[in-house]
What we know:
26 helices; 2 strands
Amino acid sequence: MQPQSFLSPIVYNLICQVPQHTCQGPEDSTCLEDEWRTVISRLSKIHLETTDDFVNAVETLLPLAKCAHQRFAAQTALWTEEPRIYTWLSRYDTFPKKMNFLIGSTEKMIDLLKFLSTLERALGDICSTHGEPCPFLLRDLLQLDVLTRYFGVEIMKVLQVLIGNPHGINLRNLVWHGFLQPDEIPDIYTSLLLFAVEKMAVQVCNQPLRLRPIIRNSPCLKILNEELVEDLVCTGASDVSLPCSGFPMALYLNEGLRVYQNQRYGDCVVLLLPSLEAYMRVVYCIVNNCDNRLLTAESSSLYTTMDEILAPCVHTKENRFAHHVGDDIMAIMFDLFQFQDGPRLRDKLSHGEMALEALSPSLAGFVLALALKFYALAHSLTKWCGCDFHTRTDSDAFYATLIAFDAFAARYRTLFHALSVASRSYEVAKSNLTLIEELPYPVDFKRGLADEVRRSSKEIPTPRIGISLYRKGCCELTSLLRLVAKETETASCNVVTFMRLRWRMYNERLLRSRQRSNYCRLIERSLEIRELFRNVLLKAFGYFQLIDDNKPDDGYRATALKDLRRLLKTAENLRTLTLQNKWDEVCLLEP
């Protein structure tokens, strides 16, 4: 299998051939407004329902698109000459600051990816400002009445044809899911999109908008960056060259290496994610013997996207993708892109929910090494161009990067699987119990039951978890255990925070009478409270072991679910009562 394009025949015709066979637009781009009125009049008579309707709409829009391209392609400082677009969208971190059509195809792809994610985020903010919930899919977002009322029927029709419907050009999905190669980037469609956005910006610029917060730093990114302490692009990106550079999407990888070297880490990740998904799709289609799914889907079927590639089944059959790439790499893929507690890089970046500044050099290098790994896997399966991929000539740095990545993957342990998240919460709660006993308190306060509690105390073990990504039968147990651990962690943090705050206030002589009395009650019963936490953690440990064994039958699992729900209720009550400083009520709880 040697695909010259990842576009299906119908989509390839729409993207690459229809523009060549359609009449030229007006030579004078100053007639753009006249052409807009003419085209919109024709477009209003087309009902967008079938694929033929959308093809007809594309052909109707092409003279306008070509006229718009004549205007935008000549501009070397696009946002200076089109200030309304800049005024509206430059408030977003993902907005491309120097977009123009005179740069290379790979730089244009970076700008297009960023522009589409920015536009989607901006449209969602308009919905949010008007009190409408924002759908996850761009296709659904463009169907909302609030946007039609805000921008008008004509503009929304143009957007549906260009970026928001599988019957149309569907530009957003083509670029973000890795179907467009460098020589297939449709400049005239990008120009038409810019012209439509300029029309939209007139409506927006003078209107107050409420911008939803985006991710600049998050706990999951911090956890991931702590794990990625080594540079996997071993000898520097400038030394890495790709063997068989004629392989599809290789130009994007070479550009990713250059951008990484120039320390544009956000741009590097944005450019590489579609290429990574494309190579994953090549591997998936070959190992599952479904070559027809390599191409873009038609409107009657679904794209083969990362979600399907990482799923356990292909229709009713087992997905062979995991067997081919190995459990270590699968754990990395799930951590980066799938697990709800992870960064979900592809989703967050493509929908404009994450700032590029949040992407660290180590994370960019990690994604780059992962893309190179799948480039190698895809190439080894396709035997592209007949070149010997395993002959080391000028690509030693490339192979050194692969070796470093494989070594890292072999010792990698998933960070964001529900059991891993539960285990981290468990360990935080466990360490807080030591603090509850060791934190200082006033000498005139007395702890009760100290000897009895210490005699009955058992060591709290640390769970050792062997995680299977496709573990069957334990999903609900795992979800409940994660909630138990999180609630227990929060409750124990409440106690530690209270003790530290009251100790500081005591030393600064700021305690009022009621506060002092409440503080005294906590110290008197602190070891009882600690013992309650201990018992909750010991029970939770038993469920860690049960899930790790993965052997309970249905009857035993039903009993375990019932007991775990009861334990979760205790943990939730612990969290609520410790937040309210009700220490006597805490001691009445049963684990």
